Amino acid sequence: MSVAEVRRVSTTKVQPASYSCDHNYKRIDLNPWDIVYLKQVYLQKGLLFAKSSQSSLPIQENEENMVIHLKSSLSYALDHFFPLAGRLGIQKHEDDNTISVYINCNSEGAEFIHATADISIDDIISQPYDNPNIIDPLFSLNAVANYEGQSHPLLSVQITELLDGVFIACSVNHSVCDGTSFWQFVNLWSEISRSSNNQTQSPCPPPVFERWSLRDTDCPICLPFPLADEFSMVRNISNTKVVLFRGHHGKIKARANSENRKTVISSLQAVLAHIWIAVLRARSSLRNRINNDEETVFGFVTNNRRKLIPPLPEAYFGNSGSCLLVAAKDGEVLRRGFGYLASLLNKVVNYGINDEKIRSAMESRTKKPVIIPADEAGVTRKDILARSSHKFNMYGNDFGWGRPIAMKNGVRGKSHGVTTVNEGPVEGSMDIEISLPVEVFTAMGNDVEFMDAFSF
Length: 456
Description:
Layout: E1 6-14, E2 27-29, H1 32-35, E3 43-50, H2 59-80, E4 87-93, E5 98-104, E6 110-117, H3 121-125, H4 132-135, E7 155-161, E8 165-172, H5 179-194, H6 227-230, E9 241-247, H7 249-258, H8 267-287, E10 295-303, E11 321-329, H9 330-336, H10 338-351, H11 355-367, E12 384-387, E13 406-409, E14 418-423, E15 430-436, H12 438-445, H13 448-451, E16 454-455
Parallel strand pairs: 6-7, 10-12, 12-14
Antiparallel strand pairs: 1-6, 2-5, 3-8, 3-13, 4-5, 7-8, 9-15, 9-16, 10-11, 14-15
Helix pairs in contact: 2-5, 7-8, 7-10, 8-10, 8-12
């Protein structure tokens, strides 16, 4: 299919229902966890729904009511997550030629786009890989960098009416919140949407907006470089495909634990080890050799909230992540096999981060902030990094016409090796998306050991 024609019907701003700047947080300074994403593109998540056949209204009137209702419920949700209705602010410090970045909670509004497209649910979910010609137009703010939140909304929602479904796509500034915070917002929005009076009680627990830092004097973080020079962005479009893997993780987990009797391998660690070692085998087969001394770095983006002492509230609104990395020689991994790689992942998850290490890293990044370059996602072309979580409540988001039938990530900003972990459509299941060249996926499809447990 060629590029999907998505027709925008309307674009409006949605402000918090109370539309008041009279709250305790008019300015929220970004901390080092937030600043690291300034050059990256917006976080993009979308939910696919089948059109409801329960309404007795004419189709056009029913669709208009749906859009009005979603817009209204979003407004009430923004009452509780009001930073998403703001913009980024830049403060210049003339005395030392530095800048600091903050969230300006000015209630200017989130963007709400109503669109239509002559594509079907099957066009979106029938292929094993995400076709950017179809997925890209369903999202707004494609290739917009987080630092551009000065002039772009921090949250943009695009509601696209399909031939037989509805796609709700959210593009959110990743310097403002992480996946945990984002899905808490969507969970509340869907709860409000399906309520009878379009309102709900305050979320329990309510979001915590105050950014964590080691000392009160650490805010704001001063960035020692000119904005125009350092925040320029090269928008490279990768030649990789994003493929969804779905399989039987119970069998994979059991095998991993049978090979590691002195430790407990989680389902996620086992699944990633199974996929990632298949990637190594595929790369080796394409080169017709194994480079025993060449290393691959495997990594996780992990949630720090529960690792700190005392822990941060689970409702902490912002970023709270560390990147855990383990390097291993390809030859040894392929020789010792899947169970060995699973044990390496288990070790870095269980012992790679703690309160002391988090505080030490925060101390270092407060003195010298780190920003991931625009043309990287934190990994080289050979390394592999997992992000997101299958524990996020994605498929529980019923806006009033049933559960989603699929969850899709935006395809922009996914560099080589980026692996996205999602909740699966069946309770307790998980979906894994990974971005790799097509020839690697072809080789994996011919890997009997891999395909015994997984399918594209």
